[in-house]
Amino acid sequence: MANINHKPSKYMLNLLHVLPAFADEEKGVVNTIVEIIAGSINKYEVITESGQLKLDRVGYSSMAHPYTYGAIPQTWDLDGDPLDIFIPNVTETLVPGSLVEARIIGAMKFIDDGEVDDKIIAVLNDDKRVEHIKSVDDLGEYFKKETKYFWENYKALKKPGTGQVNEFLGAKEAIEIVRESMERYQKDYAPKFEE
Length: 195
What we know:
195 residues; alpha+beta; Inorganic Pyrophosphatase; five-stranded mixed β-barrel; 3 helices; 10 strands; 18% helix
C-alpha cells in the first residue's frame, strides 16, 4: 500500500498529486485521503495546492457525518475539487489525513447549490467485515434513506434546499465517474503545476 513512485525528499509530498487514483483499477480499488471521520460535525478538507488538512468549517447544526469521508487523488470533479468519496461501515475511527484503499461499490449523484458534486461510495478494501458488500443495495434500503436525508439537510440551517440527491449508481458507473474525473484532472488541473 502507498508505494509512491517518487525519490525520497526532504519536502512533504502532496498525496493529492503524487498518488494515482486507483490502487488496483481491475478490482475497483481507489486510494483515499481521509478528511472527515464518522460522527464529526467538523468539515475538514485537504488543501489542494499544499496537501495539508484544513478545518473548512464547523457544521451549522448538530447533524454529524454518518460516514468516513475523503478525497480521491489525481481526480477533479465538476465542482472544482478532487472527487469525493464516503466509506460506510468503518468499524474503528480512521485518522483524518490518513491514506486508505477503498473498494468502490457505487456512487451517489448529487447537486450541491446548483453544482454537480458526485460522491463515490466504497468500503475499506482490507476489512473482512465488509468483504461481502459488492453494491450499494447490499447496504440496505435504510442506508439510502439515511444518506439522502443527510445530504439534503446537513446545510439546511445555512442554505436550505441546496442539496439534492438524484440517484444511486452501481460500481461500474461509479468507476466511470472516477475515470472521467481523472481525465478532467489531467486536462483542467495538472497544467497549473509549476515546474
